[in-house]
Write a structure and sequence with these properties.
two-stranded antiparallel ribbon
């Protein structure tokens, strides 16, 4: 995974390693904040934003409890109100993602 420049969308620095999806937390947090600002604009309150993490690439799809803690800390650090960690190994459809999000609002 790479951090990117908001203007050019070109990778500027890696925040992953062969073993960890988030190996460099500073770069990951800065990239996550930029991404949330871009996606949400200024119209959406950050307290309503949930981060969905679905690592499906080989080597990242077997999530340990420590990695879950890192993902939850990452979500809080970038301003998300919660984190949804998806452990299924196959890519989710839009309907499956919607179902996971709707279940949070019940």
């Amino acid at each position: 995974m790479n951090a990117y420049s908001q203007e050019s969308r070109k990778a500027v620095a890696n925040f992953s390693s062969e073993r960890l999806l988030i190996a460099n937390s500073d770069i990951a947090i800065n990239s996550g904040k930029l991404l949330l600002q871009e996606v949400c604009n200024s119209n959406i309150k950050m307290s309503n934003i949930y981060l969905l993490i679905h690592p499906i690439e080989n080597g990242f799809n077997n999530i340990s409890p420590v990695e879950e803690m890192i993902y939850n800390d990452f979500g809080g650090s970038i301003g998300a109100s919660g984190v949804i960690i998806v452990k299924e190994e196959s890519q989710l459809t839009d309907k499956e993602i919607d179902k996971k999000i709707i279940s949070l609002n019940k």
